[in-house]
Predict the 3D structure of the following.
Amino acid sequence: MMERHNKPNMTCEQLFEYYRNQNSEYASLVKMLPGAAGSLERTCQILEQCQKENKRLFGYYPGIDQRSYDTVPELETMEPIGSIIDGYLYLQRS
C-alpha cells in the first residue's frame, strides 16, 4: 500500500524527496529544479511557493516542442526560473 502524503505540510527537503522517488514528468522537472534555480535555498522557495500558491513547474523545450516561444502565449505569464537540459523551466499557476 502506498503511503499518502500531506504535501502542503511538508518541508522543502520532504517535498524534494517525495518527488525524487516519483516516476512522472512533473517529478522529472522537480529533479532538475536545483540546477535551474541555482541554489538549494531558491529551490526550497520555489517548491514551497508551488505548495502554498497552487503553482506548478513547467518545462519548455524549444528544440523539441513544435511551437516556438512566440506561439506559446502562456509563457509570457509564467515566472522564468532557469535553464534545464534542452530547455527552460518556468513557474505557472495551476
In short: The chain has one domain: 8-93. The helical segments are 12-20, 25-37, 40-52. Residues 8-93 form one domain. The two ends are 28 Å apart (CA to CA).
